[in-house]
Amino acid sequence: MTPDDIGTRSARVSVNSYYGYAGLPPLAGLETMQEACTTGLSVSESVNRLKRLHWSLKRLRRIFVSRITSMPIYELKMAFSLHAHYCVEHVGEFAARVKEMRQPPHGLNVTPHASLDLFFDEILCAPDTEALLLGLYEYAVPAVIRALERMMADTNKLFDHPSWRICRLTLVEVQDVCQYGTEAIRCLVNDEKRAGLKQWLDILSRMLAAAGDLDGKLEPSGENIGRHFSQVPYTYDPVPARDQRFQDPYNMGVNAEAMLFNPEIAPLPKTIMLYFKRMREIDVPEMMASMIAENPDKSWEYDRDMTRQLWDEARHAMMGEIGFVHLEIDWTEIPFNFTWSLGLNTKLSAKERHAVLYTIEQGLMPKSTGKEYEWEVALATADPLTAMIQDYDWADEVLHAKIGRRWIVPEIGTQAETMAYGDVAWTKILVDWKQWKDDGLTEHRNWWPEVYRAACRHWKIEPDSQILKYNVSYENSRADMKEIAG
Ligand SMILES: [Fe+2]
Ligand SMILES: [Fe+2]
Questions:
Q1: Which ranges constitute the DSSP H helices of 24-108?
Q2: Dihedral of alpha carbons 58, 63, 66, 71, sign
Q3: Ligand 2 centroid distance, CA of 416 (Å)
Q4: Alpha carbons 340 and 288: distance in angstroms, whole number
């Protein structure tokens, strides 16, 4: 037989050396005939593992979201936003696969094992950043990775291909999450702190063992383990925290919009205001996290949309950060006001907060004052990075308006009623510029001149004396919604 004749006339019957026509890989290249004949989980076993992964990713997403607002470290706020987004996307895929294989009831809202829930409760209640990082990234996330890898090794790639594929794609992102977490622990958790948490970390291991590991593949230890940090039930902390690089959080000393919308001012200095407005958006994930955390019984579709928007808003903040670094400006010299998320989170209901967000976002749609205008200013600066920032910021806003129309408008009534409701809610939290000053919370320092000078050094131009004198605060212009870009 010539090589060309291999498998062209008949099929080999040996499992060990089976091949396809002309030597082609059989079974669409997924696995060998040997593997196809010998590996596999039953549908019931596969469904059980998928349900555990579904539940675990759901719990993990909730922890990430719930800890965004009160997490002082900016980088972790941003990372938690991304990690929550990854988790919720995969939650949907696992649920859909279970529904493909089984008739209802699917039991997707029921905990697969009490110890698994204890395990996640403990991490949710972790008392500080170090414990939270260790619980998340040294225990929970690696347990998800183990479960995904074992599922991929144990199930039959052909028979259960849809499950195998979901696990494989999920693994790519969960490994990224783990890698970031490992790096975060290296930067933030010292040996002493770790040693102090040894007893609790041991409890986490034992809770997983009691559940037969996250995927239930191992024999459950059967141990009854008491609660540690979760003895006091978790309550969401709505007060936004920032790390020490963020100073003067009540400062309303520089009115970004008054410059942006002033046709007398050339585009280039407006670059700084665009970056400022983007980075100030740290407060949007801080606020959105509160809405999601306080609405635990909404549908997966709601969770998915809201978490996606939350992540987009975190991206917008980081786009501002990128801009400042690109201009060689030390952004820690700029006060990023946090009173919007503080006021909304502590004084309004979740429904009111969502309506305020919606009303703001509708205000960003008009051509002359909204996202399109910001993009035109960015184009006029002739800086490709600034243009790209505003281009994507505008694109994201299109999706956000759609998300608002999908979730908050039907809850309130018509679009006009929702906006009126949002407007009334907003007036409830207005605190005036002067009061913050009188209360000694801020001096409303004008940070513009030194930041503009730093930008001019980067641009290698002399500061314009008129622009340098810019000194418009929010004192006489109510810090209202038109001046907050969601
Ligand atoms: Fe935004
Ligand atoms: Fe937005």
A1: 33-38, 43-66, 74-101
A2: negative
A3: 19
A4: 12
pTM for the model stands at: 0.96
Beta carbons within 10 angstroms of residue 24's beta carbon: 11
Q: Hey, is 256 helix, strand or coil?
A: helix
pLDDT exceeds cutoff 70 at 85? yes
pLDDT band at 482 (very low <50, low <70, confident <90, very high): very low
Distance from the alpha carbon of residue 25 to the mean position of ligand 1, in angstroms: 49
Q: Give the whole-angstrom CA distance, residue 113 versus residue 52.
A: 8
For residues 100-139, one letter each, b for 16 or more C-beta atoms within 10 angstroms of the residue's C-beta and e for the rest, the string is eeeeeeeebeebbbebbbbbbbbbbbbeebbbbbbbbbbb
Residue 485 has pLDDT above 50, yes or no: no
pLDDT for res 10: 81
The full DSSP string for 260-302 is: HT-TTS-HHHHHHHHHHHHHGGGHHHHHHHHHHHT-TTS-HHH
Question: What is the average pLDDT across 408-432?
Answer: 92
Q: How deeply is 22 buried, as exposed, middle or buried, from its count of CB atoms within 10 A (0-12, 13-18, 19+)?
A: exposed
The pair of three-digit structure tokens given for residue 308, joined into one six-digit string: 């996606």
Q: Name 63's Cβ contacts closer than 8 Å, sequence gap at least 6.
A: 120, 123, 124, 136, 140
Gap from CA of 297 to ligand 2 centroid (Å)? 23
pLDDT reported for residue 9: 81
CA 312–ligand 1 middle distance (angstroms): 7
Helix/strand/coil for 432: coil
- Residue 433 CB contacts under 8 Å (≥ 6 apart), including other chains: 252, 444, 473, 474, 475, 479
Q: How far, in Å, is the centroid of ligand 1 from the Cα of 448?
A: 23
Residue 183 is classified by DSSP as: H
- Decide: helix, strand or coil at residue 235: coil
- C-beta separation of 295 from 303 below 8 A: no
> pLDDT tier at 368 (50, 70, 90 boundaries)?
confident
Of 334, 486, 262, 480, nearest to 396 by C-alpha is 486
Ligand 2 mean position, distance from CA 26 (Å)? 49
Which residue do the tokens 């001096």 mark? 443
